[in-house]
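Now for one record.
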Amino acid sequence: MSKRSPHDVVVIGAGVVGAACAYYATRAGLAVAVVDRGPVAGGTTGAGEGNLLVSDKEPGPELDLALYSTQLWRELAEEIGEQTEYEPKGGLVVASGEAGMDALRAFAAHQGKAGVEAAEIPGERLHELEPHLAPSLVGGFHYPQDAQVQPALAAAHLLRAARRAGAELFLGEAVTAVRTGPGGAVTGVTTERRTLDAPAVVNAAGTWGGAVAELAGVALPVLPRRGFVLVTEPLPRIVRHKVYAADYVADVASGSAALQTSPVVEGTPAGPVLIGASRERVGFDRTLSVEVLHRLAAQAAALFPVLAEVAVQRAYRGFRPYLPDHLPAIGADARVPGLYHACGHEGAGIGLAPATGELIAAQLSGAQPALDLTPFRADRFGTA
């Protein structure tokens, strides 16, 4: 006999986005169930670096979301910041030539009109922010609003706070059906072990958001975009900021399926340095690519020569949930009453999680969302 349990909302996905949805929904007074086929942070979240960035986003809906999320992360830091290794350390974007510096200058000026803080740093002053940077760099821009968390810890502590407020968590249970009533409205979900009744379901399944949408009878073209991260041996704090090369911004915005790598280097409170970033669309192929690892190591050493003699202890990979226009799907799906989406954030999900969760909770509780959700509508792709 299946177990039944009434809730106001079922959140599918126990990554950081699903955790944020549960956290803000319980704060809004809703009875929440979170279900995941694996453990907490077992998907994209557990393979992330924990970036909370505004520096890599051009003005538009995603940057508005990031700025709002930056504010919410600061508020969350007062409650769970120490437990999640929250660091408001800022970002540093650097250029190796004058053409790159000109591009950064124009980009920062454009961002400034949208509320992003950025300060130009000439090449001779870069060592004041990062003493171990390559001396050949011509300059960069410092972004004080950038920050970092440990993503798996962030998801775990958001869920812990939600559970203290009454949320229920069901792990190791794949959702096999999104149930609807005679009029087509959502009535809950069925998992491998139980039936969960609820008039609302939030699809926070990350890279598998398209498959969950399909269970509800709608199309959402979420695709996996694979990336690798290198983890060094524990070190003294030789990298103080999130540091990346100017071409990283172009890689983030690119829709290419081909392999792209650009150096992204940051230290962690625990000591290891994290090195990225790569992007390629190869489906869910988890094959370890030695070519990619060599590229990332070489590019990081060119940016920070001190890393050339440092041991890499491990490498891991994950899949960013990619949507064709680089915007996530957030909010109510007009095609299925009671279905909400919170997925497709690509590599920005950790940074955008609080804003996503707060906006979803506002819709669920009948409040006015703080941002216009029209650009994030799931039905913007039609039936393709």
Observations:
- The longest strand covers residues 312-322.
- The mean pLDDT is 94.
- The two ends are 38 Å apart (CA to CA).
